[in-house]
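Example record for the data management plan.
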Amino acid sequence: MRRLISYAAFVCAVVMSAAAYGQAPPPGGAPLPSLQAPPPGAPLPPPPPPNAPAPQYPMAELERVVSPIALYPDPLLAQVLAAATYSQDIPAAAQWADQHHYLTGPALASAIQADQLPWDPSVQALLPFPSVLGMMATSMPWTQELGAAFLVQQQDVMNAVQAQRQRAAQFGYLQTNPQVVVTPGPYIEIRPVNPAYVVVPYYDPRIVYVAPAPGFRVVTAIRFGYGVTMGAAFAPWGWGYSHVDWGTRVVYINHDPWHRTWVNRATYVHPYAVQRVAPAAVVHHEEVHPAIQRSEQERAAEREGRKREEEHKREGEKARGRGGV
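Corresponding structural encoding:
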């Protein structure tokens, strides 16, 4: 009963972006991402019109909206929040990431540049994380909520993240482990043990922010098994130079504060080292990297924190063993 009451309070606020999106939101706001999200391809809701009024989110609703990502390591959290403000780029980027998941490290960074991808660099920064982009693409109403909230109420969003982290730590779910360091204090920071290796946590927001049931092993509620090595090749997209200043509630991307807001969202250009490509130039560009979608087994390995194994590589080795090309 206590859990039901806590969760009911957690999702009770529903009066927020109806004016901005021209329709009433579903109960409790947009559905949160599922741990078992299917591949990208679900129908997308229309984006808010350019002249839509800025939505206003009460704190209880902001806590609900940030709950799926509040426990991400700070560098990944910063990148996800920035990318969510360009929600219109997410579905195509998620599809590209899924089809090019076999590329990693410098090869992936080179492919992003060579393929002249037209999305904002904040979205390109998540291409090494196909599971994160896939979650965002298959939960577009939630992604749009997250982006709109961050555009309008950046500091309130950061306050909501801290509130959820405090709950998760209070109940024992959020702890330092071999992958991340959880820094207690007035502000909870979550940093990778190895700054060049960013781990994606998997957890159920309905569990980690409420008191555990008697006998429940809290250390099993968050899985930190799957991670991505982010070397110097990804520095142009801000990796290694993106963080959160919790004292001021400011997100820094590639050394600079993220200043994109609801008011300047049509004109703001964040400073990146990576070269931007105009969408018109992509029409005449032929991609040179083959599209190979992830299998469900590969997606499950990421969700379950198991080592990723490229099935297409394994099949290629079998074919070579049989004398194939």
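Summary line stored alongside the record: The longest helix spans residues 154-170.
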